Description:
The chain has two domains: 8-173, Bifunctional carbon monoxide dehydrogenase/acetyl-coa synthase(codh/acs), Chain M, domain 3, CATH 3.30.1650; 180-391, Bifunctional carbon monoxide dehydrogenase/acetyl-coa synthase(codh/acs), Chain M, domain 5 (3-Layer(aba) Sandwich), CATH 3.40.1470. By secondary structure, it is α/β, with parallel strands linked by helices. The model has no long low-confidence stretch (mean pLDDT 96). The chain contains ten helices and 17 strands. Strands 4-1-7-6 form a four-stranded mixed β-sheet. A four-stranded mixed β-sheet has the order 2-5-8-3, sandwiched between helices. It starts with 19 loop residues before the first strand and ends with a helix.
Amino acid sequence: MYVIDVGPQYEGERVRKGDFQVEFGGPDVNRKAELVTVKAMDEVEHDRITITGKDIKDFPEGSSIPLFIRIDMAGELLERDLEAVLERRIHQYINYIEGIFHMGQRSEIWIRMHKNSFKKGLDSLEHIGRILIDLFTAELPVIEKMSVEFITDPAKVEALLPAALTVYKERDEKVKGLRDEDVEEFYGCVLCQSFAPTHVCIITAERVSLCGAINWFDGRAAVKVDPEGAQFAIPKGNLIDAEGFSYDTVNQVVAERSMGETTRFNLHSALSYPHTSCGCFEGIVFYIPEVDGFGIVNRDFVGATVIGDPFSTLAGMASGGKQNEGYVGIGVQYLMSPKFLITDGGYNRVAWMPANLKEIAKENIPAEMFDKIATEKDVQNLDELVAFMQNAGRL
Length: 395
Ligand code: SF4
Ligand code: ZN
């Protein structure tokens, strides 16, 4: 028996190091992911909860554990188009559970469970599965069948990962080629207001959400299935600043949904009226005044960036849901966007980024700029970056 409370009031909770019974995923664990798959009605056994590998109670206090959460769903009206949006709700619903926090998405999840909740009886992943099935099916009646499998066996998590990464990639590929100019609507999301009460995400054809989990197609699918949900449509309205990519209707909605905190977004700028950031960003763009250029860092980057701060310090500066000139949280796919920080000069303004991100963004970086952007392999600190930029003829 467990006596754990569940509800939106627990959404903003944090569980600190030293307070957790166990954590799944997070920076100390390489293999982790969550994946929702929509299947045919006869392929899903409703209410089935499986644990493959050890359970919460089998791990010593303070353990960091690999985890793959595999959720299958079926329903006459459910479409595969909805998978990304449904998957994002895992974040929301796990955070409803007293004493548990969930961060991140896809293959970057991090779940911590407080010792007090363990003492109150939350000692099995099965309880979490039960809560997830109850919440999902109550809030989204289109889900007629749902099963949840928690895999903690490290070898099995590893074996499942490649297929999940392929699915994430396919979702990202879908928006390639679609331009902001081609669509009539953008989408908004306020799911993260529980952590950052004035934060609003604007998702355009060329700007994936900063959590990386919701692109334009996902926004459209979400609005169709749950018009009252955290995602909503925004008629694009008029472009009131062609350089800043600022739209009147978008600004109105941002003002309303941020309770007046932010009244204007320049959708593709980190310097002027930048998009706000909650805390879920996959990457952060930060301005480096010494070189009048940007650094970019992603969550996986280990150690200090070129300015000496690690991701976690920069995350503290960028997050909180307030407009913060010089900082913007991004989804990694935004690096592939033709409008990537176009207002500020795009890649012509980027001074430093991790080598792996540079590889991901390769196709989108102008050929003549590629060797003029430093990575951790080229420079270790600000002085070296200044020298690198001078050598490259950029300063
Ligand atoms: Fe929604 Fe943005 Fe939070 Fe992603 S980061 S869940 S898009 S508010
Ligand atoms: Zn968030």
